[in-house]
Amino acid sequence: MAMNMILLLFLLTVSAVSAADEVAFIGVNIGTDLSDMPSPTQAVALLKAQNIRHVRLYDADRAMLLALANTGIQVTVSIPNEQLLGIGQSNATAANWVARNVIAHVPAANITAIAVGSEVLTVLPNAGPVLVSALKFIHSALVAANLDGQIKVSTPHSSSIILDSFPPSQAFFNRSWDPVMVPLLKFLQSSDSYFMLNVYPYYDFMQSNGVIPLDYALFRPLPPNKEAVDANTLLHYTNVFDAVVDAAYFAMSYLNFTNVPIIVLESGWPSKGDSTEPDATVENANTYNSNLIRHVLNNTGTPKHPGIAVSTYIYELYNEDLRPGSVSEKNWGLFNANGVPVYILHLIGAGTVLANDTTNQTFCVAKEGSDKKMLQAALDWACGPGKVDCSSLLQGQPCYDPDNVISHSTYAFNAYFQQMGKSPGTCDFKGVATITTTDPSHGSCIFPGSGGRNGTITNGTSTAPSSNSTSSGSPSQYLYRGDFFISSVIIGVVFLSTVFL
């Protein structure tokens, strides 16, 4: 009996995912709802600079495919929802689409997948009955062109089609879609394709009314007693992403499909939102995407299928200012239209993909709107325990003007950031600092790390104050009351005691 159970578990593990020996990859989605959309050539240049080898287009734009030709970049092209009904009702229409948008571009363009529609069952339910027909018609055209071995055919789903997603072991698909989902999974299985899933922990967190902790959504480390445990399997979940992916695996197994791998076609976090979305911030977007990339690339897999690749496409390459809806809808991008990063991902030591400083020049500056008392405390720390040489800030020196705490703390923050090799966490200072690619140097004040010259920095190994640390050490000479500069340590001690005690 025990031997039979071991054999059964082995067979389930082998059959669960055929991609077990594949290496996971990170790709990006490329939307075009920008008022100043870069040319295809510019977009491809950015992809190359970032070593991005996998992209998903929301259509099969000819100019973009021509720009991607002979780059080796693997491309997923898409059939927009508005074309789905026609393709799903006509084999000839599907064949014409493949001839025009695929055959005309391969092998120069390395097209490896076709996404048929987008979240059809939840966005365009009236097209649900023809969805599987559309997949089959497109696949038949690929077979006729002898391209079915190279190009997979699938359709991306919203995670909202999964009901009772936690615990994952109890998850199942909305039963009303069984007439579509069962033949769809049969097609994916028979064509050796994968289940495309869109996973957005941001929305799960927002809609949970406080039930889902922010750290759990952002992949931040959790103490063991805070991890979510599936009582049926005793599997521990440390993040929303894994829980949703496993919920999809369990939902497929509920329909007796255990060998269809999952690829996440969209996932990300917005860097800006309106007053109703306080957690759509640059720092949270950076944290989520940085942790997501590390999580995927180290082939962690999920608790249900550890070590099994869950390749993921980040939503998205550019901020799309023309997208309708809330502020956050326009701010999911890693880059602005001019190719400047919205934020610098925390990816030191995590590989070469998306090391997204295109200029190789990043600086740490005081965050706009920061409390001046907190800036002052951080400035004191940098020029004291942080061992930054702040002599350029003294009266008569190049960086004395403008004589205010914002300007002076920016200089000190950046000097520390550069001296620490731009390591993750060295541009925080209790939340009053942020990273930028804009050189803050001005006039004769040349900031460390700029192209002008390197500032004089005293070597040290102190850790910058983060959101969990406290400022300590002797007060520095660089203190303010309004814009009044005080260079006396003794007066500074008196001043600090009145502010913080």
UniProtKB/TrEMBL annotation:
Chemical reaction(s) catalysed: Hydrolysis of (1->3)-beta-D-glucosidic linkages in (1->3)-beta-D-glucans
Enzyme nomenclature, EC number: 3.2.1.39
GO molecular function terms listed in the Swiss-Prot or TrEMBL record: glucan endo-1,3-beta-D-glucosidase activity
Residues making up the signal peptide according to the UniProt record: 1-19
Keywords: Cell membrane, Disulfide bond, Glycoprotein, Glycosidase, GPI-anchor, Hydrolase, Lipoprotein, Membrane, Plant defense, Signal
Gene Ontology biological process terms in this record: carbohydrate metabolic process; defense response
Key word Metal-binding present: no
InterPro entries: GH (IPR017853), Glyco_hydro_17 (IPR000490), Glyco_hydro_17_plant (IPR044965), X8 (IPR012946)
Domain X8 residue range list: 362-447
Record-linked Pfam families: Glyco_hydro_17, X8
Membrane topology label: Lipid-anchor; GPI-anchor
Location(s), subcellular: Cell membrane
GO cellular component: plasma membrane; plasmodesma; side of membrane
Skewed-composition ranges (Low complexity): 458-475
Annotated segments matching region Disordered: 456-475
Family: Belongs to the glycosyl hydrolase 17 family.
Protein name: glucan endo-1,3-beta-D-glucosidase
Organism from which the protein derives: Acer negundo
